[in-house]
């Protein structure tokens, strides 16, 4: 009876543990996912362990059934690495571990449609103003200044997510993840301006 009792709770919890991306990287992420571990990740340490894992799981090193297993393991390692390396993807993944899935509008935060995302009016206004500034930009120096400011917004959002996931405040973490999504998309818009603006930069810089 005691054995059955001790297995009942751990079995349910541990059934998710092997599926966690964090479990694949015990060296670079020894504390695991938040709240026990930090939201922040050392990208250099993560990549080092990623390369080591991929070297062991490379399909060319296996044959037959083992090769098929290696291919599956390699794909899983790749997916976990890409997810954990990207702060926004990492936040969304952590939400999913808590049973929270972002809606389609929330997942494409920063796109042309802002309705239905649950954004507060102040944030919505700030995002709209930033977009207008990007549209009005006429020089690369302006865009570089905007990119620096946006990078600070992303850092602040990531720091806030670290606090929220550590505290187990999943609902507020969901809102902050949506917010980070907007700043990530603003960064993409700024990158696109630089690519498309080369023809007019010489006239103004």
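^ structure tokens above, recovered residues below v
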């Amino acid at each position: 009876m005691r054995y059955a009792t001790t297995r009942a709770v751990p079995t349910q919890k541990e059934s998710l543990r092997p599926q966690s991306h964090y479990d694949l990287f015990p060296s670079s992420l020894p504390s695991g996912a938040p709240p026990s571990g930090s939201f922040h990740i050392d990208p250099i340490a993560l990549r080092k362990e990623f390369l080591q894992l991929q070297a062991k799981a490379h399909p060319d090193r296996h044959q037959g059934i083992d090769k098929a297993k290696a291919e599956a393991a390699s794909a899983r390692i790749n997916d976990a690495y890409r997810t954990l390396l990207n702060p926004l993807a990492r936040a969304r993944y952590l939400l999913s571990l808590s049973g929270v899935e972002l809606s389609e509008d929330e997942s494409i935060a920063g796109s042309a449609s802002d309705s239905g995302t649950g954004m507060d009016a102040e944030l919505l206004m700030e995002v709209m103003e930033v977009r207008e500034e990007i549209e009005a930009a006429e020089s690369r120096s302006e865009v570089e200044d905007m990119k620096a400011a946006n990078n600070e917004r992303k850092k602040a959002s990531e720091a806030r997510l670290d606090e929220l996931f550590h505290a187990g405040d999943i609902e507020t973490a969901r809102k902050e993840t949506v917010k980070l999504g907007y700043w990530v998309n603003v960064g993409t818009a700024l990158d696109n301006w630089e690519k498309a603006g080369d023809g007019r930069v010489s006239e103004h810089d």
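The chain is about 70% helix and 0% strand.
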